[in-house]
Amino acid sequence: MRWFRRSDVTAPPATDTTPTGPDGTDGPEAFRVHVPWVRTRLRAATGAACALALLVALTACLAAAFPRAVDRYEDSGLRRAAEQARPDRTVIEVYAPPPSPMDSSALRENALRPDALAAQDSDVRARIPGPLVIDRGQSAYGVRSSQDVPVLDPWLPRPTGDPPQMTLVAQSGLAAHSSVAQGRLPRADGQVTSTTDRLEAAVSTETAKALHIKVGSVLHTGVYTVRVTGIVTPRDPQGAYWSTKTVLRTPAVIREPLPSTAMYWVGALLLAPDAGPALLARDGRPERYWQLAPDVRTLRARDIPALRHAISSLEAGPALREVRRRIDGPSTELSELNGSTEVTTDFDDVLIAYDRIRDSIAPLVAVAAFGTGTVAAVVLLMAGGLTAERRRAELALLRARGVSLRGLTARLLAETAAVAVPAGAVGLGVALLAVPADRAGAAAWAAAVVTAVACAALPLRAATVHRVVRVHAGREDVASVRPSRRRTVVELTLLVLAAGAVESLRRRGTSGSAGDLVSLAPVLLGVIAALVLVRVYPLPLRGLARPAARLRGAVAHLSLARAGRTSASAVLPLLALLTALTTAAFGGSVLAGVREARDHAALLSVGADARVESAAPLPSGLPDRLRRTPGVSGLSAMSVTDAKPGDGSQSLPLVGVDPADYAALSAHTGLGAFPQGELKTAASGTAATPALASRATAETYGTRPFPVLFPDGTTLTVRITEVLDGTAAVSGPDFLIVDRAALSPEAARPTGLLLTGEHLDGKALREASPKTATVRLRSEERAAYVDSPLQSGAEQVYTAAVAAGTGYALLALLLSLLRTAPERTALLARLRTMGLTRAAGRRLLILESLPQAFLAALGGTLTGWATIRLLSPGIDLTAVALPTAEPDSGAVELRMDLLSLALPAAAVLLLAVGVGVGQAWWSGRRGSVTELRAGDAR
What we know:
single chain, 32 helices
């Protein structure tokens, strides 16, 4: 702690004599006292210290929570993607060749026994590179026949006369992964060898039902006689144990390639785990395998590069060499002839697909992070600037009395750190508890950066202002402080950067390194707009002040004149407001684009608000029942038939509709709207039935009449009268739509119903519809697009970040108004002594603060609108809105959201007006005498 002279604390009386020390000598030691600077300052300004601590704690909490929230939804999204992928894609399968035929029978049999396979399973799992973790509960190993064996028993089903083909499988863990529905599990009596030809097996319940197998059935495969001892039910049918090879639980009918018409059943016989050596008796080439299921619970999005590297190492790398060395033994010429162990998996494709979606979403989320981070940093700097402005006289006095700039900065840094560091630690702790995640390093760094900015704001501002010792500061408004050349160069540099970022984004989109430009472009545009508006906006205010001077009363003229002489440091609050409003507008456009894309995709998929369809004609009374269902406002019946137009070489869907109902439906949905008369009126007096067609169909058949052949043998001559880009009844590039009254009675029977209405009851529609009909709702289809935690988490984080940024922007406006509050309060007190009324005082404060708020609101709205228009061509929201969309589907662009443009701007104006009214009310309660006392610090 530094020492101060007593004269720095209390000025000595003029009659004091020269003091002496304890030893009677003169010296400065007699005037030195120990002053606890930090404690004294914190006690003197407890309210300001608490406000700073609250601000730092809140900002540190939000900053620390952001990376943890991102990690959480990205990890959840990866786990969901791995769970939704089929086990045959995620499981790592290890295939080993059969034992060498040059070995003795005993060695070959021992290589297929459970003990040897279990030891090799442990060796293989030990060679799995991190961070890939194997789920032992869903992993398995065993022996199976490399080729399916025909079962010759005539009582088994044969679709075309060919016998069923069965896979013989001796897989570990059958008892743990199944429950016995009938009979018992298979056993291997005695020592199974390559000469064993009588085996016991179990089958799944689905296999038993499809192939008519019962307990006690005997199957003859030519070499083996297999007796079925039990029927088992899988405990987890969708787990990796049963779904890596689905034939274990579900048989399938296989069709031979054309021109053959042969079909046969394929199933699996589940042998005892220790019956593997018996498979040597057939062709001597059974297949050893190990199925390694990844543990989904341990997957982390940040580990995707390491996971892909581990999988590559297993498929063709060092890990594969280690696995081969453990299973195949030393590499020799004979072992190479016999084959070597192979590792295959599609898990890397799952990771690549997820990583592609995540890379598309990350730049959009980063927009909110950069925008909110910029606004929060501005608020912290403004808080330091407000404190420095309030203590300007104190710090100037200290500098005038000899305090060095370094010493002053160090004292202010210690004073601020005593408040900010504990507050930052509290904010970090709250974030760690509120948002559970694995990593804490990124959160700690974010909280540390917030704390560092809060600690440095006041010292740096004080060092800038008090670099030169002066007692009286000059004016610092835009009327007296002109922009320097250095500032002009900086502003032009930022303008060039922003223009380059926008142009690069428009050209390249969000792929690759351009993703960072998406994050920075709104902030850069906000910076440019703030700098331009700070330079420009005093000019129109001064122009308005001249005509206002001719008005009766001084309120309008005085408020405009003072607003035109705003502080030159107003760029920070304006930057905060513009950045927050731009980020909010951008975020609103993102959410609006995603919402509209999902609505449109659901509409294209269903065709209306609800759809009821069946392969067979629907009951005649169904339309009337559905019309009485709650929420249904419109219904259109349709019959869809595969007809063959022209020469009958190819078929296309022909839809028969009621012209009035279908025209109303098309107008309501916006899918292929057409005038009702195109189907009905044009038919009178003509031989050909008018038809609506797709563009591709119209290009193929033209507008001349042509016949259409129906499946029942009837024909209809149609003529295309209207071309549609799409329609609600069917999807696809080819279709024809005709009046249902022109069809035969059989072809005119409705096979589908399209319903419109608000808040349709899916349960009631399904109860009213026959069981053979399929009921689809647009709302349910739309909800299916947001089932991924990656999408929903990104939307929630983005919304929270935009809300936080808006709150910080309002706080920046409040700090800006508080900075000039003492001056405006004193002015109001002086004017009241000259006869200004309370109402006029309120108008004065509102009109003085309103131009800057109106400027920020208007500038933020225009900047947000310009940002959306400029960035929209380079941003594709397909990954956020429709992650399952095809790569060649249309891009989902930003959509202007008027609410996100107008609502934050209106909040800024309301806050400015509210602060003006509140300050006028508070100053009226205190009275003018209190405000005009000489010597008070302002």
